[in-house]
Amino acid sequence: IDALTSANVLTFADKGYQGAGGSVRTPFKRHRYRPKLSRRQRAVNRGHARLRARGERAIATLKTWKILTKLRCCPRRATAIVQAILVLHRVETSRYSG
């Protein structure tokens, strides 16, 4: 968290990181015996979930490619490999989606 904050990287985290501060954004959390979340807070939580869902899905897709478990190279090359994997994945899913 400190490294993300010092690098000023905007990060969307789950409710477990409540109070992390800095550039870490978390959804609103309803506590027991407190009023329900407002309409605006629920809308913010929905938008937050939409953004996080993209990242979660991308990570799940990358985990299916076993090459990444044994990847030992520089970050620049790893980025190129990940981009190639995502292109291949999109080609495959578009081929079978009809």
Explain the overall architecture.
Strands 1-2 form a two-stranded parallel ribbon. With 98 residues, it is mainly α. It folds into two domains: 1-64, no CATH class; 68-98, no CATH class. It contains three helices and two strands.
Topology:
Elements: H1 2-6, E1 11-12, E2 24-25, H2 39-64, H3 75-96
Parallel strand pairs: 1-2
- The H/E string reads HEEHH
Distance between termini?
Answer: 42 Å
As residue ranges, the low-confidence spans are none
Overall tally of structural domains: 2
| Amount of beta strand | under 5%
SS elements, strand count: 2
Shape: extended
Q: Which structural class do the helices and strands define?
A: mainly alpha
Mean pLDDT across all amino acids:
84
Query: Major sheet, described briefly?
Result: 2 strands, parallel
Report Rg. 18 Å
Relevant terms:
98 residues, mainly alpha, 2 domains, two-stranded parallel ribbon
Task: Compose a concise summary of this entry.
By secondary structure, the protein is mainly α.
